[in-house]
Amino acid sequence: INISVRTFSDYANSDAVTTSWGVIRDLVNMGFIFVLLYIAFGTILGLQGIDWKRLVPKLIIVALLVNFSAFFTRVIIDVSNVTANQFYLASASPNPTPPGQTPDVTTALFKNIKVFSNNPAFGLGLTDDKANKTPEQLQAEATLDWKQIVVGTFGGVALALVASFVLLAGAVLFIIRTLRLLFLIILSPFAFFFMILPKTESYAGKWWKALANEAIFAPAFLIMIYVVTQITQAINSKDDGSVIFFMFIIGLLLGALIV
Predict the structure, then answer these.
(1) What are 6-63's pLDDT values in tens digits?
(2) Alpha carbons 48 and 187: distance in angstroms, whole number
(3) Under 8 Å between Cβ of 222 and 81
(4) Nearest CA to 216 among 84, 90, 87, 88?
(5) Coil/strand/helix, residue 227
(6) Is 98 left (phi over 0), alpha (psi -120 to 50) or beta?
(7) Separation of alpha carbons 152 and 99, rounded Å
(8) pTM for this structure?
(9) Which of 31, 133, 135, 181 has the fewest CB atoms within 10 Å, i.e. is most exposed?
(10) DSSP conformation class of 144
(11) How far, rounded to the nearest angstrom, does the alpha carbon of residue 141 sit from its chain's CA centroid?
């Protein structure tokens, strides 16, 4: 997340990306000559679908946009990353971040999964106010609740495994997102260039769809993680370690990948 969202602009503005985009832009600018020839011959020969009155103004507009294609692409990505970063910081807020260090969503999430933090069955809550309780109350609190132990143990393990899987899969997807976005920036001149002719508009549509998918992915994933951290924090404060609790949180974690 730190690479794909928080510091992505450093990679997007690197010399490798800028130089590669410049090569593609120059190639596309050369392609406009062939498009003009195609429109000219198509008009002379009366080819179907060649309307120079519509295509020439469109070509001029696209020629201008091509030279700013990287800028427009980065604006869309920046809006996505800024939105995603807000939910990232909100998700990590329960875990204070030392100055100069990256917020840690993982620690914040697992901190909330404290099934037995105040569970009297394990005697972990006896030190808080045991001075104000009678021996009978202390003995009752110390009685083992085997059902709660079994549910808490297996539920906690299952929840930890699912959370680890979701975070690991999310990390891989964010790495892929970074690489795809860099390639989309480099190839952005083609996305505008293919918008000129009807026969090539479908290729431009594929590029825009890929950009939209990668832009929406980061906020969508982190919104779900934010929801999970907030719900686990609220339920954990009530010390609810029921089966429904584990199933609900596991469902939300898997939903982060599905969404």
Answers:
(1) 999 999 999 999 999 999 999 998 888 888 787 777 776 766 666 666 777 777 888 8
(2) 29
(3) no
(4) 84
(5) helix
(6) beta
(7) 35
(8) 0.76
(9) 135
(10) -
(11) 44
